[in-house]
Amino acid sequence: MNATTALLRMLVFPGILFAAPAAWFFLWIERKAMAALQQRIGPPFMQPFFDFVKLMGKQVPPREGLGGFLMKLWPVLAVAASAGAVGLLPVIPRSGGFPGDLVLLLSLLELPSMFIIAAGFSSRSLWGELGSSREAILSVSYNVVFLMAIIGIAASQHTFSLQALAQSQGSPLRWLGVLAILICLPAKLHMNPFSVTNAEQEIYAGPMTEYTGHELALWELAHGMEWVAATGLVATLIAPPLANPWMAGALFVVLSVAVVLVLTIVAAATARLTIDDSVRFFWRCALAFAVLGVSSVLLMRIKL
Amino acid sequence: MNILRLLLNNFLGGSITTRFPNRPPADKGFRGLVRYDPQICTGCGVCAYRCSSRGISFRSSRTAYTWAYDPGQCTYCGRCVDGCEAHAITQEAAPPPLYYKRDELNLAHTTQRPLPPPKKKPEAAPATGEAK
Ligand code: SF4
Ligand code: SF4
């Protein structure tokens, strides 16, 4: 992948130009599905886009000094990081990629969470700081499971390239990893039952409490793109390799939407866990998956 | 797993909300727009005094008084209606209509106060003394 194709992938397909509409589409699916499960009619199709446009037109209170500058900076960086993450996804097979892009994808997926933590503290709002410290504690916990799952999958298939992972066949360890990733996604996307970070009705909007106008619009966009990147990663891992690029692209979208639906059902069916319970849950998960992972590796060794 | 059954029933049951501007029919006793009858109003100004959200304003002078209503400020609490001894104001039993321009539903009505009966000229005091 040279610089031009990298830029094209980041800015056009599957980067920003594709990722922004995809983000709004995924946000709409999530909201609509949640509404359907709660006997509500839900938002119209274009609503996430309208929300974005409306927020873009709103006035932002003047923010002074370094704190104000940082508050403006974080949402821009979050959008850039999540657009970069979407840009790396192998939506269409053999569209490029480089060895080790999985590692870059992981770090780009991690960055928005860091920026959220930083944003909450920069805003100096009590609720922001509370939300940020919750996010920090939670991300330390779920990332153990998340990274273990990804490393387990990559090691079992002997590659850190997304393209190669998409092309390779599934294995029990890979399915175990996908399950672990799915368990982490609600925490990554701030969904129930792991929505302590921006626990609405409790700490307002957590780190986002002080945000409004175009800054909040950018946060929403970054959040939508995180959805695309995270569900896309799962879709990459579970999609069977297909030769036809159109079929592969369509399957990718269908699987991503299916993941969104599964996460929404989980969110609708559960209540918010406290931070202690969430952390305890993820550390227990980490233990369970570590035991399962190590034993399956041992079993594979014995079989070989 | 009760919750999953509940979600499934919710999903199959269809939505119970409707999309704006469709609205469910108003119940009996619904408190909508405030309506004013200048024929009955006595111009006491109690309604404006009772309205804590400045939905009603009342300006009065010696010769006329103006009753004005701004639905954009009104919270439809009904305190003005309760307080009007003359029963000159009522509330519609339907949700307010949609409006797209600011102050489109505002009302104002000016009533001339009845002229006070002309003062009788004090009668000329009876002459008490005799001119000398
Ligand atoms: S309280 Fe009734 S009578 Fe008095 S000014 Fe208001 S509407 Fe008129
Ligand atoms: S209904 Fe309540 S808010 Fe509206 S005008 Fe009357 S007193 Fe004011």
Structural account:
The complex is a heterodimer of chains A (304) and B (132). By secondary structure, chain A is mainly α. Chain A has one domain (3-303). Helix content of chain A is 73%, strand content 0%. The longest helix of chain A has 32 residues, at 126-157. Chain B is α+β, with helices and mostly antiparallel strands. Chain B has a domain at 32-112: 2-Layer Sandwich (Alpha-Beta Plaits), CATH 3.30.70.3270. Chain B is built from three helices and five strands, in the order H-E-H-E-E-H-E-E. At the A-B interface, helix 2 and helix 10 of A face helix 1 of B. The complex binds iron/sulfur cluster (2 copies). One iron/sulfur cluster (SF4) binds at residues 34, 50-51, 53, 55-56, 74-80 of chain B.
How many E-type strands of chain A?
Answer: 0
Gyration radius over CA of chain A: 19 Å
What oligomeric arrangement do these chains adopt? heterodimer
The biggest sheet of chain A amounts to: none
H and E string of chain B: HEHEEHEE
CATH class of the domain at 32-112 in chain B: Alpha Beta
- Low-pLDDT runs of chain B: none
List the ligand species.
iron/sulfur cluster
Strand content of chain B: 15-25%
N→C terminal distance of chain A: 36 Å
Task: Report the uncertain regions of chain A.
Answer: none
Mean pLDDT of chain A: 87
Mean pLDDT of chain B comes to: 88
Describe the secondary-structure layout.
The complex is a heterodimer of chains A (304) and B (132).
Chain A: H1 3-11, H2 16-37, H3 47-56, H4 65-88, H5 101-123, H6 126-157, H7 162-167, H8 172-188, H9 213-238, H10 245-269, H11 275-303
Helix pairs in contact in A: 1-4, 2-9, 2-10, 3-9, 4-5, 4-9, 5-6, 6-8, 6-11, 8-9, 8-11, 9-10
Chain B: H1 2-13, E1 34-36, H2 46-50, E2 56-60, E3 64-69, H3 79-83, E4 89-91, E5 107-112
Antiparallel strand pairs in B: 1-4, 2-3, 3-5
Bound molecules: iron/sulfur cluster (2 copies).
